[in-house]
Design a protein that fits this description.
- This protein is of the alpha+beta class.
- The protein has one domain: 3-Layer(aba) Sandwich (Glutaredoxin), CATH 3.40.30.
- The protein is built from three helices and four strands.
């Protein structure tokens, strides 16, 4: 079964567009390796967290701000398909 990604975002902070953009980036690059990407409002204010099958790969508070798409794509690839080459992102 292919892994699922969930992006939790703070509604009060208006981070829905940021979460949507990241979902699009992940699907465009790694979509064939994923069962899907879900965007969900978080219960805790200030939350921006990206989770793969229950494991957090990015947390805004823990990791210090918002990730670049390149970093999240690498972290996600390392979890779901470590042998996969991301082309220019790996250079």
């Amino acid at each position: 079964m292919k892994p699922a990604v969930t992006i939790y975002y703070c509604v009060g902070c208006n981070w829905l567009l940021r979460a949507g953009w990241m979902a699009q980036e992940l699907l465009q690059t790694l979509g064939s390796d994923l069962s899907g990407v879900t965007i969900a409002p978080a219960d805790v204010p200030g939350t921006y967290r990206i989770v793969v099958d229950g494991d957090t790969i990015w947390d805004r508070k823990r990791d210090g701000g918002f990730p670049e798409a390149k970093e999240i794509k690498k972290r996600l690839r390392d979890v779901i398909a470590p042998e996969r080459d991301l082309g220019h992102l790996d250079r």
